[in-house]
Specification:
The structure holds 2 protein chains of 2 kinds. By secondary structure, chain A is α/β, with parallel strands linked by helices. Chain A is built from 19 helices and 20 strands. The chains are: A alpha/beta, B mainly alpha. Chain B: This is ABC transporter permease.
């Protein structure tokens, strides 16, 4: 390429402040970049870095108390930063010249309007199409984003679509008026990896065809490496590093970029961790475990409209001291499986046997309430969402001490001592005991959750996506903590995740689940590098690889029911 | 959809049976019956009723029969002949009293309901969209005043004002000269002149409550991501608010229709007494006090039916408004 493509949108020294009770908080601080026709700029950063606010500022969509206080956003002759937030001028640009795809396709679409109505609305508004023309154009658009049967899909509602289909509808809506600039704010974060790969392919193809300029906002370095031309790294409201993607990945100069890349690459290989016990008896074995849900039973009973086999004849063994990963996409039954083990969801069939060292084996399904309670102190859960799983009205001391209190382990001074011991074990200051969860960051909250799980000296921990809500740099810290704890306390883990990287980093063995069944079990390294089942192959190859020189997604294997 | 409505109607039959049984049980619950309160009333006035006539009346009204026989007579007459029984107190068939009063009640209530919604929904939307603005504070203040002032005080206040300042005839629904007159334009104007006080009084406290509900509902919806999506399309603020969040914020409103109907009928008793309105509330109260069992029973039964109809209406409306509700069936 001899000449750089034309600049469509040029941002200079953009500054956004959020007015607060005391002073103001600068969310975006002097950010500059250019968006060029047909090229994609990746805006990368961890949560709170100001990347989403930047994106919204480009369309004057920052909600009060946020306000653009400086800089310019030039789209041709117009400076968007100077336009009134609710004025006619900016409304004419939104959806027509610049459009946006959001992270949560479910909540970003209206639940009570049809997909078609929401797309048609843009066409009627900006292109002044009449109803009939708008409808025809919408069907065409839905076809372009590869939604099957667009003639029927146009009259469907968002909840009738899968996550990937919703995001496609969202894309159709964004593309309706042929915008010059497309802003995608974490467009695939809520999607499974295989769906993510397809949606990213689609966005990339459409962007090339139409020569749109695109701003892709993401926290995922893998997605960046695989899809963008240029990168801008944001940290605390500032762009700390910018340049072509290859230069940023292979010649990063700013320490933050280097840290971010190091944390990402660290999760691309197994952690240095103790070898799994060579021969060891299983501490937990699942035999033909299954769960069937009856669908469509009304309040007055009646016949089920069908059944859903959420977990189907799963047999797995967890050796003492071992870490078993369970990986699968949403709806694969991995979370249900975790719940079946402790009977928080009652299994329909099959058996779970817990064989603690030096004690008689326990058949979990035959336990009464008291027996289950004993079991709960031996096998414990770590939850996914560190924000929702801690009661905001309880202090850390109450949260961590609650299992001790319920099981009457000692007086309140003894519990206090144990809580401070636990907090130190997970790397928190025991002096923080009397604070409430909101005073902690996501990573710290997850540590609190882990401390709570450890309170009763369990033998087995079941961790359901414990790191998926965390930023990448925090993620490896939490995993390292779990590895250390596992070694010190001789724990066994069942580790449920959709994230292959995390599984490879942390687990000895992996079971791959699909539609309630385990399709493949084996050594983690083997599964992640040379899987034998075609589904696993498709899954692994869809994971974006954080190196622009070694793209993986583009040569990915696809899996359909017939390719078995 | 049609099948669903049919199914719902079918489910209403056993519910209605249960309700009628309970209504009848309730009116039988107080010790004694109409004759005991009648004899004591007569004794109070210095006369006495001889035992023979008491026995004769007891047999006439079937008061000596067991509970289930009385219930059967009552309910079978209603179902097969539309006969709600005889009001001891008024010496009239219950059905005549009932339809007179019910007509006025439903008319006044419906007007109030329209006024409530016409005020509460726009004000609620305004308050939610312009949260913490001067206007919001003003409406919030007025709303709380409306909630706090007892309805009978408000009724008395309005009567005082319109009588002393405007010299209007207040109380009741008609001026005395039109009470028995045939319908004419003048009578209609007279009715409207009387009507505004009860309608305003009944509406005011409900309006205040509904403004708060609407404001809270809409505030929640306004911060949802789909609102940002709509804004990103370039819709004007007014269009997008009316089209998206308001539509969703109305759902809880619709769900309340079920209990709004009966509460408007029984909840305004005090207002009706103060304003001397020929509504159902005062009649029901009097029937309960004097143990006029058939009259009271009929009222309770009608109110139960209204509740059921209200519930059905709100469920159907909800299904029409929100496709998710339809989908779950």
């Amino acid at each position: 390429m001899t000449t750089e493509p034309e600049i469509v949108l040029s941002v200079r020294d953009l500054t956004v402040d959020f007015t607060q009770r005391q002073g103001s908080f600068r969310a975006v601080d002097g950010v500059s970049f250019d968006l060029r026709a047909g090229r994609t700029l990746g805006l990368v950063g961890e949560s709170g870095s100001g990347k989403s606010v930047t994106a919204r500022a480009l369309m004057q969509l920052v909600d009060p108390p946020g306000r653009i206080i400086g800089g310019s956003i030039r789209l041709g002759d117009i400076d968007i930063a100077q336009l009134p937030r609710r004025g006619e001028a900016i409304r004419a640009i939104r959806g027509a010249d610049i459009s946006m795809i959001f992270q949560e396709p479910m909540s970003s679409l209206s639940p009570v309007h049809t997909i078609g109505a929401q797309v048609m609305e843009v066409l009627e508004l900006h292109l002044k199409l009449d109803r009939k023309a708008a409808r025809a154009r919408t069907i065409e658009l839905l076809g372009q984003v590869e939604i099957p049967n667009p003639e029927q899909a146009i009259d469907r509602y968002a909840y009738e679509f899968s996550g990937g289909m919703r995001q496609r509808a969202m894309i159709a809506m964004a593309l309706a008026c042929n915008p010059r600039v497309l802003i995608a704010d974490e467009p695939t974060t809520a999607l499974d990896v295989t769906t993510q790969a397809e949606v990213l392919d689609l966005i990339g193809r459409i962007q090339r065809e139409r020569g749109m300029a695109m701003l892709l906002i993401t926290h995922d370095m893998g997605v960046v490496a695989e899809t963008v031309d240029d990168v801008a790294v944001m940290y605390r409201g500032q762009v700390v590093e910018a340049g072509p993607v290859d230069q940023v990945f292979h010649g990063a100069t700013h320490p933050y970029t280097q840290r971010l890349l190091a944390a990402t690459l660290k999760l691309e290989q197994p952690a240095a961790r103790p070898a799994p016990p060579a021969v060891s008896s299983p501490i937990l074995s699942l035999r033909n475990l299954g769960k069937t849900y009856q669908l469509g039973i009304g309040a007055f009973g009646g016949k089920a409209k069908g059944t859903l086999r959420a977990v189907d004849a799963v047999s797995l063994e967890l050796a003492a001291g071992e870490t078993l990963g369970i990986v699968g996409e949403s709806g694969s039954g991995k979370t249900t499986l975790g719940r079946l083990i402790l009977r928080t969801v009652e299994p329909t069939d099959g058996e779970v046997v817990y064989s603690p060292p030096g004690a008689a084996p326990v058949v979990v399904r035959t336990l009464d309430k008291a027996g289950l309670r004993n079991l709960y102190s031996e096998i414990r859960f770590i939850f996914q969402d560190p924000f929702a799983s801690l009661n905001p009205r309880m202090t850390v001391r109450q949260i961590v001490g609650e299992p001790l209190l319920i099981n009457r382990r000692g007086s309140s001074t003894e519990i206090n001592a144990r809580v401070s011991q636990l907090l130190e074990l997970v790397g928190l200051d025991a002096g923080m005991m009397s604070r409430y969860p909101h005073a902690f960051s996501g990573g710290q909250r997850q540590r609190i959750g882990i401390a709570r799980a450890l309170a009763l000296d369990p033998k087995v921990l079941i961790a359901d996506e414990p790191t998926s809500a965390l930023d990448v740099s925090i993620r490896s810290q939490i995993l390292d903590l779990l590895i250390e704890l596992r070694q010190r306390l001789g724990l066994s883990f069942i580790f449920i995740s959709h994230d292959i990287g995390v599984i490879r980093y942390f687990c000895d063995r992996v079971a791959v689940m699909r539609r309630g069944r385990v399709v493949e079990v084996g050594d983690a390294q083997t599964i992640c590098t040379s899987p034998s089942h075609p589904y696993t192959q498709a899954l692994i190859s869809a994971v974006p690889y954080p190196d622009p020189r070694r793209p993986r997604m583009q040569q990915r294997a696809r899996y359909t029911e017939t390719s078995v | 959809m049609l099948l669903y409505i049919l199914k719902r109607l079918l489910y209403m039959v056993p519910t209605l049976f249960g309700m009628s049984l309970v209504s009848f049980l309730i009116i039988q619950l107080p010790p004694g019956d109409f004759l005991t309160s009648l004899t004591s009333a007569i004794a109070d006035s210095g006369q006495s009723l001889d035992q023979a006539s008491i026995d004769r009346l007891t047999a006439l009204y079937g008061l000596d029969q067991p509970f289930y026989v009385q219930y059967w007579n009552w309910i079978s007459n209603i179902i097969f002949r539309g006969d709600f029984g005889w009001s001891f107190d008024w010496g009239q068939p219950v059905s005549r009293l009932l339809w007179d009063r019910m007509g006025v009640t439903i008319f006044v209530s419906a007007l109030s309901l329209v006024l409530i919604w016409a005020l509460a929904i726009p004000i609620g939307i305004y308050s939610a969209v312009r949260r913490y603005s001067i206007g919001d504070y003003v409406f919030t203040f007025l709303g709380f005043v409306g909630l706090a002032v007892p309805t009978f005080i408000l009724a008395l206040g309005l009567m005082y004002v319109s009588f002393t300042w405007f010299g209007l005839n207040v109380g009741g629904l008609f001026s005395p000269e039109y009470e028995q007159a045939p319908w004419s334009l003048a009578k209609l104007l007279d009715l409207l002149q009387h009507l505004w006080i009860p309608v305003v009084v009944i509406a005011i406290s409900s309006t205040a409550a509904l403004i708060r509900v609407m404001r809270a509902n809409l505030s929640d919806e306004l911060s949802k991501p789909y609102v940002v999506t709509a804004r990103a399309k370039g819709l004007s603020e007014f269009t997008l608010i009316m089209r998206y969040p308001v539509r969703l914020a109305l759902n809880p409103f619709v769900s309340t229709i079920g209990w709004v109907l009966p509460s408007l009928i029984s909840g305004v008793t005090i207002t009706a007494i103060v304003l001397n309105l020929p509504m159902a509330g005062p009649l029901l109260l009097r029937a309960l006090v004097s143990q006029d069992m058939y009259l009271a029973g009929a009222f309770i039964l009608i109110m139960s039916v209204l509740t059921l109809i209200g519930m059905l209406l709100s469920d159907i409306l909800l299904a029409v408004l929100d496709p998710r509700v339809r989908y779950q069936r």
